[in-house]
Design a protein that fits this description.
This protein has 308 residues and is an alpha+beta fold. It has nine helices and ten strands. The protein is 47% helix and 22% strand. The strands form three sheets. The chain has a five-stranded antiparallel beta sheet, with helices on both faces. Strand 9 and strand 10 form a beta hairpin. The N terminus is likely disordered.
């Protein structure tokens, strides 16, 4: 019996299709970073090269803008923190009047609530402050020249401020306002002025201040042809009071005499302790007859007033 003839053929189990390896590998370093942009392409390598360069440039630009925005945000935060910590009221309004920075002291001075933080509200409060001082010229000056520098004094809610406003163009561009409270300085200046011009015992002007006032009133009298009178007074036997009752009693006499004289004078009259027990009265717009009547009235009042 013949063996059967068997014919066979081996067929591969692999897929019948084939593929090609990528013909181009591309990579670009992103500027300023450790990153690389990588692309694979099987055809048209020049086109991929150009696209890869463009993509890398775009990503680098986006990275720069992002870094710049973050830096600006950090700088803005630092500036805001610095302004909040300033020991004086401070306001900044940018050149376009679209943004403003203000610290708590300035907000309190301008009577702005925490919710009133808009540029228009801040600018309106500043305009009101200027106008409330009757300083229309300053308002017109700043309107005519936005870069003008100005210093003025403001009396606001019982305090006195030296206000300094100027244009800046150094990182921040716009106008700054600083407010220096000089209330205490003005009070001390007035105290010094009073001490330098008045007699500490009676409160009357001292001789030096009286001489200045006399020259001024005499010049006015000559310029306008108005009358001016001068009365000189002294106390009889004042040395006997000091010798008999002591200097404390003499001081009491001087004070009581000063009060009596001052009660008979007008606000425009000038009263001086000329020295020792001598007093001088300068009477603007007063003729000789009126001055003589006042002198006699004072003489009589002093003679009839006992001093304990």
């Amino acid at each position: 019996m013949a063996s059967p003839h068997i014919s066979s053929s081996r067929r591969s189990s692999a897929p019948s299709h084939s593929y090609r390896r990528s013909s181009f590998n591309g990579a670009k370093q992103l500027a300023g970073t450790d990153l690389r942009l990588v692309a694979l392409c099987s055809q048209n390598p020049p086109f991929l090269e150009r696209q890869l360069e463009a993509a890398a440039a775009t990503m680098a630009e986006l990275g720069r803008h992002g870094a710049k925005s973050e830096l600006e945000r950090l700088q803005q935060g630092r500036i805001s923190a610095l302004i909040r910590s300033l020991p004086v009221p401070f306001v900044f309004v940018d050149a376009q009047a679209t943004d403003a920075l203000i610290n708590g002291d300035a907000r309190a001075l301008l009577k702005l609530s925490p919710t009133e933080a808009g540029v228009e509200q801040i600018a309106s409060a500043l305009r009101h402050l200027i106008q409330s001082q009757g300083n229309a010229a300053l308002h017109h000056q700043l309107a005519a020249d936005p870069r003008a520098t100005a210093i003025f004094y403001a009396h606001h809610h019982g305090r006195t401020y030296k206000v300094d406003t100027q244009w800046i163009d150094d990182g921040l561009v716009g106008r700054i306002w600083t407010f220096h409270d000089i209330t205490e300085e003005r009070r001390l200046e007035e105290e010094l002025r009073v001490l330098a011009s008045t007699d500490h015992l009676t409160g009357a002007l001292n001789r030096r201040a009286f001489q200045l006032a006399f020259r001024s009133e005499l010049a006015r009298c000559r310029r306008y042809g108005v009358p001016l009178s001068l009365i000189m007074l002294d106390l009889d036997h004042f040395k006997r009071v000091n010798d008999t009752y002591g200097h404390q009693a003499g001081d009491a006499v001087l004070k009581e005499t000063s009060s009596l004289i001052r009660s008979s004078l007008r606000d425009s009259d000038i009263f001086c302790r000329f020295g020792g027990e001598e007093f001088a009265l300068l009477l603007p717009h007063t003729g000789m007859d009126e001055a003589a009547l006042l002198a006699e009235r004072l003489r009589y009042a002093m003679a009839e007033t006992p001093i304990d």
